[in-house]
Design a protein that fits this description.
heterodimer; A: 324 residues; alpha/beta; 7-stranded parallel β-sheet; B: 249 residues; 9-stranded mixed β-sheet; two-stranded antiparallel ribbon; 6 helices; globular
Amino acid sequence: MGDVLVIAEYQGDRFPKTTLVAVNAGLELAKKRGGSCLAVIAGEAVDAPAAELAKYGVAKVIALENPALKNYLADAWTDALAALIKKLGVEYVLATATATGKDLMPRIAARLEAPMASEIVEIGDDDTLIRPMYAGNVLATVEMEGPVKVVTVRATAFDAAPPAGNAAPVEKVAAEIAPDASRMQFVAFNQTKSDRPQLTEARIVVSGGRGLRSGENFKTVLEPLVDELGAAMGASRAAVDAGFVPNDLQVGQTGKVVAPELYVAVGISGAIQHLAGMKDSKTIVAVNKDPDAPIFTVADYGLVADLFKAVPEMVDELKKLKHS
Amino acid sequence: MKILVPVKRVPDPATTIRVLPDGSGIATDNIKWVINPFDEIAIEEALRIKEKQGSGEVVLCSIGQASWQEQLRTGLAMGADRAILVKSEQPLDTLAIARILVKIVKDDQPELVIIGKQAIDDDSNQVGQMMAEMLGWPQATFASKIELADGKCTVTREVDGGLETIAFPLPAVVTTDLRLNEPRYASLPGIMKARKKELKEIAAESLGLDLAPRLKVKRLTAPPKREAGRKVESPADLIALLHSDAKVI
């Protein structure tokens, strides 16, 4: 009882911060429930990432391999992982709530007839888990029943696991996938091209809202500030809805949840659903011409100003600071 | 093509949510109830598919109390053909909701289920995926584009770092993301017509399913409130403070 299996995502042979967050949350959960923490990495050939993952403090890494696992697809992955979970007899299955985690984990829960808690932010001592509801305006303390339970964790709520002193053993397992469990086909992945840090990993995030008025202004007005700060670029739902920028930049309840050291909100009014995605940032700056904009209620530093004047001035000031 | 769209009733997204002092729930006075925005996108997509194909049926299904009829009528006014309300007074978890919807699918035999990617009240993002697994169907979550041809479905998905395209045979479950479409408003003739459309009520207990919740919400609390900070006078002051006071740049 109390054993935890972390489902690890990787990109090439690199572990994104979100995966190391899952490992850390898995280690904490296993410790609190009196079990050990295992991790699984699935794919076509995963020797290299499995060996890397073994350095982060888990008791064992399982390299789950099958050519059908080359690209992530919910049906084949569920089949392969559910069989492994049953074999291992773990009490918890855990992943970070990335796009893949959100897609996969409920399907695994249904296969195992297990309850699932989404995007937990805290692990209680008394068999409880804490998760946000209503765009983060409510925290729910939940309890799950049954031999196996499924959990996703919010990436911003836990730290990344640090490397441990020694490497855990790696066990190779050939995944079995039923033919009728492999009906989905991968066609293409169009990666958003960007040299900037990823939104969910950046130390600084600069987001733009409807106040920027056009996609063109994101490029000419906001991007110089983003790049001067070495930041990731985000956007409000209103800016995405208006077609200024792609949806994968959306910060908010239904987009990405971020908690960087510094969050700069430019031309964003601060609707409830946007605040849900950034209010745990360490320092928040808001630039908005409306002094009554709700964004100012969460901002550490508020500048009431026309962004088209203020943002270029901020860029100039940053350049001066760099040269001083 | 027959399409099933599960619909949840949620507080209007602009509503400020308050937790009751005893932590047993949220204060529901002064709440305006609406169709979950992602389910509204699902209804719109189903209607567009039906309009494009020139035939078919769009069936809505909600699981809740008698008062949920109101949101189903709104969906019917948008253009859906009929609705099913599965009545339940008990708290249901996502597994139970998925089991009920799967039963409806088995009885009603749609070729496609389109459902919102998440409900904006509990923010779980689970039911569509659970239904797909229970039915043994393919799934495509976070759809921003759905193409149907020759019994095959191709979906563009909003994933981390870009757009992914997957393809699969029908039947299947698709969950909607924001940019899939912009839902229409119900027209006045639509509202008049909706009154006469079929809205069937079924008692959840009559379905013979295991609906006992395996996830229980023990209590709700309000998160710690973030205090507003200070206003600064100029961009120069702002950058100076971020450097010397907050020490973040």
